[in-house]
Amino acid sequence: MPRKVRVWDPFVRIFHWSVVGGFLANAIFTNPEKSLHHTIGLTVLGLVALRLVWGLIGPRHARFSDFPPNPAAAMDQMREMATGRRRIHLGHSPLGALMIYNLLLTLIAIGVTGYMQTTVAWFGVEWVEELHGAFVTWAEISVALHVLAVFTESRRLGVNLPRSMLTGYKSLPEASSGE
Ligand code: HEM
Ligand code: HEM
Fold first, then answer.
1. In angstroms, what is the span from residue 114 Cα to ligand 1's centroid?
2. pLDDT for residue 139 is more than 70
3. Across the chain, what does the average pLDDT equal?
4. Where along the chain do its domains lie?
5. Ligand 2, atom nearest to 107 Cα
6. For atom 3 of ligand 1, which residue has the closest CA?
7. 25: buried, middle or exposed (CB in 10 Å: 19+, 13-18, 0-12)?
8. What's 5's DSSP letter?
9. Positive or negative: CA dihedral 43, 46, 48, 50
10. Which ligand is nearest to the CA of 32?
11. Taking the model in full, what pTM does it have?
12. Mutation probe of ligand 1 site: the residue of 24, 37, 140 with most atoms within 8 A of C-beta
């Protein structure tokens, strides 16, 4: 029997899928010159701000202290991916953690440079506009890699990671300890 472990609290799950929806809406559908784009973008920025607070006071696996940036552990994980060794992490994996910090910081940079363009001081300033676009491009590349990693790691580990972000539970295969 697979073992079910509760890992993601409702805030983390609602945060994740709202950010996905808001980011995709602004990157693909909304008109950047219209207020809908700004409202959605500022909402994403607000959600990220709340996530930063939750990273300090939230439950165990939501806390930054549960997934500190650790490049050496991320290298180990890449070696495991190459050699097929399976080590299942209950919370975020070391590579996942690095990607999460990258995504959170990039979303903040997008939000700030977007907001700047709506102020009198920075309205129409070309480098701010270009920086906003460049951060969006970086986020798109990161998201592509993030989604690819989520699906390849799900296959390698035998744990459906997207489902865990929906239900809050990781279903661990038999004979795995989970860390
Ligand atoms: C999830 C967050 C966001 C995403 C994915 C996003 C995406 C984009 C994209 C793809 C463009 C077009 C860039 C280009 O033409 O090179 C753009 C432009 C723009 N964005 Fe955002 N944006 C976000 C947040 C915001 C926020 C929070 C604001 C303001 C409060 C904002 C204001 C603008 C403005 C003013 C432009 C330029 C429009 C123009 O060309 O006149 N964005 N954004
Ligand atoms: C369909 C597309 C996506 C899927 C299936 C997906 C799936 C996941 C999964 C499974 C996790 C947890 C990873 C782990 O087990 O450690 C995660 C975390 C995360 N993802 Fe995504 N993701 C998607 C798109 C995005 C997008 C578009 C963004 C942002 C632009 C994003 C930002 C994040 C962030 C910030 C976290 C950390 C969550 C937290 O701890 O609060 N994801 N994602």
1. 5
2. yes
3. 95
4. 3-172
5. 30
6. 41
7. middle
8. E
9. negative
10. 1
11. 0.94
12. 37
Confidence band of 32 (pLDDT split at 50, 70, 90): very high
pLDDT reported for residue 168: 97
Kindly indicate the confidence band of residue 119, based on its pLDDT and cuts at 50, 70 and 90. very high
- Closest Cα to atom 24 of ligand 2: 20
Residue with the smallest CA separation from ligand 1 atom 31 is: 114
* Domain 3-172: homologous superfamily in CATH: Transmembrane di-heme cytochromes, Chain C (1.20.950.20)
- Residue 138 Cβ inside 6 Å of ligand 1? The answer reads no
Kind of pairing, strands 3-6 and 169-172?
A: antiparallel
The alpha-helical segments, DSSP class H, found in the chain are 10-24, 35-57, 71-83, 94-116, 126-157, 161-167
CA of 41 relative to ligand 1 center, distance in Å: 8
Assess contact for 140 and 154: CB atoms under 8 A.
no
Ligand 2 atom closest to Cα of 162? Answer: 10
SS3 3: strand
Do 19 and 13 contact (CB within 8 A), yes or no? no
The model's confidence at residue 111, banded by pLDDT at 50, 70 and 90, is very high
| Percent of the chain residues topping a pLDDT of 70 | 96
Distance from residue 142's CA to the centre of ligand 1 (Å):
18
